[in-house]
Write a structure and sequence with these properties.
Elements: H1 22-31, E1 34-37, E2 42-45, H2 48-56, E3 60-61, H3 74-87, H4 98-109, H5 112-116, H6 119-132, E4 137-140, H7 141-146, H8 148-158, H9 165-177, H10 188-210, H11 216-222, H12 231-262, H13 264-272, H14 277-291, E5 297-301, E6 305-307, E7 310-312, E8 317-320, H15 322-325, H16 361-378, E9 382-383, E10 404-407
Parallel strand pairs: 2-8
Antiparallel strand pairs: 1-2, 3-5, 4-10, 5-8, 6-7, 9-10
The structure holds protoporphyrin IX containing FE.
Length: 411
């Protein structure tokens, strides 16, 4: 049998512009599971088993080639070199043995006990934000809740003062452009943001070295006996935590609330059982599966190999679509049904899989488990005045830049 010429042509740059990209991704699963997008110069991998094995596959590297500094204008080169050098220290794009070492050191700070210990403070932050929201009327849920909560929590976790919050959103938005913002400059904004964050963190770390306290940052600075992160590694990974810790959780909060409002029977079930930790935890897993905070994650082929009859060449970009994997009917029964009682939601790949499996999963879950019941308690009726979803212009991060929410009407 000869190769069937694929009829479907998909450009990953379009994905964030579709109100619902899932049907298109499901067509790829059926017709062309390892799809070459000529427009993007990248492979799109969509089936659950393939995405999961892709996360595990050492032939698919996380470390990325960076363009040479000479390609940029002279005034920018120094900032660019510093950015490229910082990126090499971020564990999410580091390979073993560096990754192994960095992750082990980070784990010393982000222990389950340290995270669970934040619960009372997260509850207090949630109460404070809810108290500042009106009884009724329309609000931008992202601005009044979904952004400030995770930002404050990650600042708390790391131990940086709240004064950082006014800059953090801008920095993070610019760092996020580095993950692929179609039609935008994906190098300069993140490089400038990283430079500002580095300047801030350099001073902050020097202060904490002189005056240690008891937050994660102090554990990261202390290291493990002789094994410590260098100052550059510390700064790089703190930039990563500050960014990864709130951009994704922010999106998950608004995706989750929107999905609940659109599924009144599920919303009613969760409202009735909002004091039952098991039901709430199940709802959070189903939100992660059904409406997760990421479209896909990028890998680079470290060698050539065959996949579903396609030849992946060394250096090729490979996009692992976790959103598609979580809606694969080969894996989940009726995957497009949002069901907070689903028994196998937790098998989603919304936090990735394998070596780079999300380090902040327990924190993101805790924030959701505190926030959702508190929101439902404060507002007996919530609705969406507009049915449209405008995803942010990002190939990887999946969330709304703003979401109008009507308090006190509807379901
Ligand atoms: C809804 C919330 C979140 C989602 C959906 C999410 C998703 C992910 C995913 C998919 C990865 C794997 C990346 C890859 O394989 O290329 C990852 C890694 C990571 N995440 Fe999260 N994340 C979330 C929240 C957080 C939080 C709150 C933190 C706080 C510190 C965090 C820190 C990290 C770090 C440090 C890594 C890199 C781990 C490694 O390379 O070993 N994330 N995250």
């Amino acid at each position: 049998m000869g190769m069937v010429e694929p009829t479907l042509q998909v450009d990953p740059n379009q994905i964030p512009h579709l109100a619902d990209p899932v049907p298109l991704l499901q067509r790829l699963q059926d017709e062309d599971p390892v799809h070459w997008s000529a427009a993007a110069g990248a492979w799109m991998v969509t089936r659950y088993d393939d995405v999961k094995s892709g996360f595990h596959d050492r032939r698919l590297a996380v470390s990325r080639p960076m363009p040479p500094a000479e390609l940029f204008e002279e005034e920018f080169r120094e900032t660019y070199r510093a950015y490229a050098s910082s990126l090499k220290t971020w564990m999410v794009i580091a390979e073993p043995p560096d990754h192994t070492r960095l992750r082990k050191l980070a784990n010393r700070g982000l222990t389950p006990t340290a995270i669970e210990g934040l619960r009372p403070q997260i509850e207090a932050l949630v109460d404070e934000l809810l108290a500042a929201m009106p009884e009724a009327g329309d609000v931008d849920f992202v601005k009044s809740f979904a952004y400030p909560l995770p930002a404050a929590v990650i600042a708390l976790l790391i131990g940086v003062p709240k004064t950082i919050l006014k800059d953090l959103h801008r920095w993070s938005d610019d760092i996020a452009k580095g993950l692929g913002a179609p039609g935008e400059d994906i190098i300069r904004p993140p490089a400038h943001a990283a430079a500002e964050m580095t300047a801030y963190l350099t001073e902050f770390i020097a202060g904490r070295r002189a005056n240690p306290q008891d937050a994660i940052i102090d554990k990261l600075i202390a290291g493990d006996g002789d094994d410590k992160m260098s100052t550059e590694e510390l700064i790089g990974n703190l930039i990563l935590f500050l960014f990864a810790g709130h951009e994704t959780t922010m999106n998950l909060l608004s995706n989750g609330l929107r999905t609940l409002i659109r599924n009144p029977d599920q919303m009613a079930d969760l409202r009735r059982n909002r004091d039952d930790g098991t039901v709430v935890a199940g709802a959070v897993e189903e939100i992660l599966r059904y409406d997760g905070a990421l479209f896909m994650l990028t890998r680079f082929a470290a060698e050539g190999f065959e996949w579903h009859g396609q030849h992946i060449s060394k250096g090729n970009k490979v996009y692992l679509y976790c959103l598609a994997a979580n809606r694969d009917r080969r894996k989940f029964d009726a995957p497009d049904r949002f069901d907070i009682r689903r028994a196998d939601s937790k098998q989603h790949v919304a936090f990735g899989y394998g070596l780079h499996f999300c380090l902040g999963g327990p924190l993101a879950r805790l924030e959701m488990e505190v926030a959702l019941p508190a929101l439902l308690r404060r507002y007996p009726a919530l609705s969406l005045p507009s049915g449209d979803v405008n995803w942010r212009n990002n190939m990887s991060l999946r969330g709304q830049p703003s979401m109008q929410l009507r308090l006190g009407e509807g379901v």
